[in-house]
Specification:
The protein contains 2 helices and 17 strands. By secondary structure, the protein is mainly beta. It has a domain of 187 residues. Strands 3, 4, 6, 7, 9, 10, 12, 15, 16 and 17 form a 10-stranded mixed β-sheet that branches. It is globular and about 55 Å long.
């Protein structure tokens, strides 16, 4: 991965598709505190200094990824590169949910690539994407692990029609790939949804859920038995939400699929999964995110 030192931000008219990129590299100080060693961002991305919210993990850096564009638009091409150097600890999230606006025929693309060094711990947990009617989104998330590095990541969405007419998004495609340090794919999760085929419901066999989340803890084998039990204990009354927990192929970690009635329940389920992961992996519950 190549990096540009310093920060740069440019602006363009929203009448043209955004082709923005954000690159952030985390490093560790001698005392164990994680900081941003290199960064680059271009419209629509913006980042401020990291925060240190967790008293139990004083060295863990919390970074909010911000956008100036008001969402994803037709033919947008956005990329995020994150690299966690060995022994770093970082939590990366969004400023809020991302609206994916309606489109005439084009597609928005969102690509995230995360490199996790030996002994590093990184959480990439953005808020759910909101799919407006006629929106099309292709999302890719790639995680490359080295040694004992661990990544906790999620991707989630909910469908919403501002006019309340139950109009559907056009399509949603998601690919999450877990790789080792030499680029070999250990596990791949793919979702392809056609909004036109959803009928009265949206997703799930019963077609009664309006939101979905995928939560993955990726890392070395043999580390996640207590976490698996904790994740399986998360319960919601059906059909408010339902969760399924599985082991990833090649002992790459755990995956949790969440189907929820609405965005509020989806966020609550994701927060419970995050809390379980932080408790099992770091020994303490996370401090609430300030948004």
């Amino acid at each position: 991965m190549s990096w540009s030192t310093g920060s740069r931000m440019t602006f363009s008219s929203q009448t043209e598709p955004a082709k923005g990129k954000l690159s952030v590299e985390f490093a560790s100080q001698p005392g164990g505190r994680t900081f941003i060693s290199r960064q680059y961002f271009a419209y629509p991305f913006h980042v401020c200094r990291p925060f240190y919210h967790d008293a139990a993990l004083p060295g863990l850096a919390t970074l909010y990824v911000q956008s100036c564009s008001g969402g994803l638009y037709e033919n947008d091409r956005l990329m995020i590169d994150l690299e966690a150097a060995p022994l770093t600890e970082a939590h990366v999230t969004s400023q809020a949910s991302t609206i994916v606006h309606g489109m005439n025929g084009g597609t928005a693309e969102h690509d995230v690539r995360i490199i996790v060094g030996n002994g590093a711990y990184i959480e990439y947990l953005p808020d759910p994407q909101i799919l407006f009617p006629s929106s099309r989104l292709e999302s890719t998330l790639s995680v490359s692990l080295s040694g004992s590095g661990v990544a906790v990541v999620c991707e989630s969405f909910l469908a919403h029609d501002p006019e309340g007419a139950q109009r559907r998004f056009a399509s949603f495609e998601s690919t999450i790939a877990i790789k080792n340090e030499v680029g070999k794919e250990l596990a791949v999760d793919r979702i392809v949804l056609d909004g036109k085929l959803s009928g009265a419901g949206l997703i799930g066999i019963d077609g009664c859920f309006g939101a979905q989340g995928t939560f993955i803890v990726a890392g070395p084998s043999g580390s996640f038995s207590p976490l698996e039990a904790a994740l399986k204990s998360i319960q919601f009354p059906y059909p408010k939400a339902t969760l399924g927990v599985s082991n990833l192929p090649n002992s790459a970690g755990l995956i949790v699929r969440i189907l929820a009635d609405d965005g509020v329940t989806l966020r609550l389920a994701l927060d419970r999964a995050w809390s379980a992961a932080r408790q099992a992996l770091k020994g303490n519950l996370p401090s609430p995110k300030r948004k």
